[in-house]
Specification:
Blueprint lengths: L4 E10 L2 E11 L4 E5 L6 H8 L7 E6 L2 E2 L5 H8 L2 E4 L11 H12 L4 H14 L15 H13 L5 E5 L7 H18 L2 E5 L3 H6 L3 E6 L2 E7 H5 L4 H7 L11 H6 L10
Parallel strand pairs: 3-8, 3-9, 6-7, 7-8
Antiparallel strand pairs: 1-2, 1-4, 4-5, 9-10
Helix pairs in contact: 3-4, 3-5, 4-5
Bound molecules: adenosine-5'-triphosphate.
Length: about 270
């Protein structure tokens, strides 16, 4: 079953650059949530902060009601065991076969026998449609297959919370749709909670139960999908329509300094 996550008044900076501040939201247990936002608004940083890979400057993070921001490394490690992460590029080890990549968390973090590991890896490979590819190296499979292998590895420890950072980047529209369907099926089958960062509007329009959006250092929207899809908020509307007209410009920094950057939205 899935576990929920919650952040309260979360702020993260690097030096004097504040990535986002005072972000509060709840990722509901067992649901699929999508996080949107222009490039560089800190979506990846948010995922990393949520599972304690980065420490926030201020605020609190809870997973399954337990406060990560108050935990020592040992407890953090234990809670991370309950999370699966799919990074942007699949992050497979290039020198290991697909099989060894997927087996890696089990060998590293459990005392399971190789026989048990073979069964679990086989099941996950089947789930992502990659049975028969286990002996290949990451360099010998396509980008889409690397994503699916990364997803299989993220699933191997039966995670209750799965974070996916642009699982569809670099995929063609049909493969993106297949990956979305796979995530929906996994969610239905395992009940795991998904938080997905994507730039794919079609995925955002069809897959999630909830949508959040980061813009200029703030969480400007977080609501059930239907509500966001009908939102009149100019940034949300422009983003979901992939429109040139609206507050979002090429450079976030330029937008912030230049009031005329909003001129595109004017009648
Ligand atoms: N470890 C780090 N040290 C310093 N700055 C960082 C670090 N990680 C990220 N940043 C900065 O934080 C900001 C947000 O980066 P992040 O990768 O989270 O954006 P994003 O919304 O995921 O972008 P994209 O959609 O392009 O992947 C960027 O300005 C980035 O340079």
């Amino acid at each position: 079953m899935g576990v929920g996550a919650e952040v309260v008044d979360l702020t993260k900076s690097f030096g004097d650059q504040t990535v986002w501040s005072n972000v509060s939201l709840t990722v509901p247990a067992g649901d699929i949530t999508v996080l949107l936002g222009p490039s560089g608004t800190g979506k990846s940083v948010f995922l990393k902060t949520l599972i304690g890979l980065l420490r926030p400057d201020r605020g609190r993070v809870y997973i399954d009601g337990q406060e990560l921001t108050a935990m020592n490394e040992r407890d953090l490690y234990a809670i991370r065991q309950r999370c699966g992460v799919l990074f942007q590029d699949g992050a497979l080890f290039g020198s290991m076969t697909v099989y060894d990549n997927i087996a890696f968390p089990l060998r590293e973090h459990t005392r399971k026998t190789e026989k048990e590991i073979r069964r679990i890896v086989g099941e996950r490979l089947e789930l992502v449609g990659m049975s028969g590819d286990e002996d290949k190296l990451p360099s010998e499979i396509s980008g889409g297959m690397r994503k699916r292998a990364g997803l299989a590895r993220a699933l191997v420890m039966d995670p209750e919370l799965i974070l996916c950072d642009e699982p569809d980047s670099g995929l063609d529209p049909v493969r993106t749709a297949f990956l979305g369907k796979l995530i929906a099926e996994l969610n239905a089958e395992t009940g795991a909670t998904f938080l997905i960062v994507t730039h794919d509007i079609n995925t955002a329009r069809t897959l999630p139960d909830h949508i959040g959006m980061l813009y200029k250092g703030e969480l400007i929207a977080f609501a059930p999908r239907a509500e966001i899809l009908e939102s009149e908020e100019p940034v949300v509307k422009q983003f979901l329509n992939a429109s040139l007209d609206g507050p979002i410009g090429m450079a976030e920094e330029k937008d912030a300094e230049d009031p005329l950057a909003h001129a595109g939205a004017a009648p």
